[in-house]
Amino acid sequence: MTRIPPVDPKSSSPQAAAALELIDAAWESEWRLARVLANSPNLLTAFAAYWQGIQTSSLERDEREVVAMEMARRNGCHYCVPAHTMLSREAGIPDPEIARIFDGEAAENSRHCLIQRATQRLAESTGKLTDEELADFRDGGLSDENLLDIIGEIAHCTISNFTNRLAQTEPDDFLKAVEPARKAVDNE
């Protein structure tokens, strides 16, 4: 049961209604997460602007999804796992790769694997990589901008993962219909 109810845009503050309109347009549909965030109009406004900003990061869409999948797995977010399964598929990531990431295994795509490892280490160390780790990620092909943009994605995911876990946000019907990647792979 949802512990923090979604806000109805019709009865929300003008600030929350404007932020919901912005995020609904960007996400091309209504997501319950946004309506839960609307309980704090300031957070929703900041989240919507932040999300818009990171869409033009140095990371490609599929690479941002690798970060999001890793964070959803790490944080045990019941809402974000199906959300990022769906969004990863839309970004062109095949089900076996999605399943590996959600199973905590290394991604097969070398760039995805590098981003996954960087995400893990940045999250585990709260950004305090050793000089050797930083050199290894740079040598592997991640620029300083890429590393900072991974931190940006971690921040975005932390807000959504923690909100969903606190609120026990009920997944939207379209997320309930998302077949888990592992099941899709096992049925092949």
Description:
This protein has 188 residues and is mostly helical. The protein has 11 helices and no strands. It has 2 domains: 45 residues, no CATH class; 126 residues, AhpD-like, CATH 1.20.1290.10. The relative contact order is 0.16. The longest helix has 24 residues. Helix 3 packs antiparallel against helix 9, helix 4 packs across helix 9 and helix 7 crosses helix 9.
Short description:
By secondary structure, the chain is mainly α.
Key structural traits:
single chain; 188 residues; mainly alpha; AhpD-like; 2 domains; 11 helices; 68% helix; globular
Beta-strand content estimate: under 5%
Assembly level? single chain
Please tell me the total number of domains.
2
Topology as H/E string?
A: HHHHHHHHHHH
- Helix and strand composition category: mainly alpha
Distance between the termini: 34 Å
Contiguous runs where pLDDT drops below 50 for at least 5 residues: none
Layout of strands and helices, then pairs:
Blueprint: H1 14-27, H2 32-37, H3 41-54, H4 61-75, H5 80-90, H6 95-102, H7 110-124, H8 131-140, H9 144-167, H10 173-176, H11 181-186
